[in-house]
Amino acid sequence: MAVVGVVVVVILLFALIAIGMSVRVLREYERGVIFRLGRLIATKGPGLILLIPLIDRMVKVELRTVTLSIPPQEVITRDNVPCRVNAVAYFRVVDQNRAVVEVENYLVATSQISQTALRSVLGKAELDQLLSDRERLNEDLQKIIDESTEPWGVKVTAVEIKDVEIPDQMQRAMARQAEAERERRAKIINSEGEFQAAQKLTDAADIISTNPASLQLRYLQTLLEIGSNQNTTVVFPLPMDVIEPFLGRADHNRGGSKAKPDAPRPPRGGEPVPGVEGSGLPTDDDTALADVPDPGPGPIVPPEDDAPATGGSSRPAPGVTEPDEGETPPDPDLPPSRS
Prior knowledge:
The chain has nine helices and eight strands. By secondary structure, it is an alpha+beta fold.
């Protein structure tokens, strides 16, 4: 009896072990690829799966999207700039049978094909494209990797470039380039603003020039703006066209009752006057006459017959006036009087 009991216990133990080996429970995102005696027979799951002990073998495959971090890769761009790039890939299994049968380990295979595709695609791009045109590069990477993993039953949904590391010298050069670009844009914007302001000022000047009163109002407004602050000095612009009427009136009134009389001119010609400068000088007529060249001696006119010494009255020569009685004859040494 004891031997029979031991045998029964051993049989029950083997039955429990067989039941444990034949029963499998798969989750909702898992599938089981069943091999019977080495041959693929079916894909089961999710839920309770019964296997034949020692005959059937099951391989689990997850259907969830896998996040694959691609290790940093040393890349030389098309314009010969060395950089270090890392990326991330998202993929999932769409065909469990091919993912198990066609490739040994689809996770490792997808990681390796992602690294090689990353180096090949980024090596054809320039640095500026790598920094600014990442969307196109991501699409190219996703397309290339997906074409390579499609026979394995793996679908690559997205590939994203995470970080691009460039040398320090290149970073400084790019910083100088960006600064120069910003300065260029600032100068262009400033010049455009000055151009627009000049146009507006020209339009305003044309409008103000039609009415002089508007210019005066603008002056008053400027004075009000200056006086709004606590200033000790006030600068008031005064145009010349405002002063011109007053200057013209002053020129018109020159020599009037309110104007200062001109100083008397000293007598010129004749005898010098004591205490008066410039007197006794030759007159303008004398100066004009002095400038006339001497025509030379004129023709000799024979004298007329002398009047009789006695009898009758003697007539004076032409141009000579006889002095009246009681008048002193003029001194021949003095210049003739203009009286």
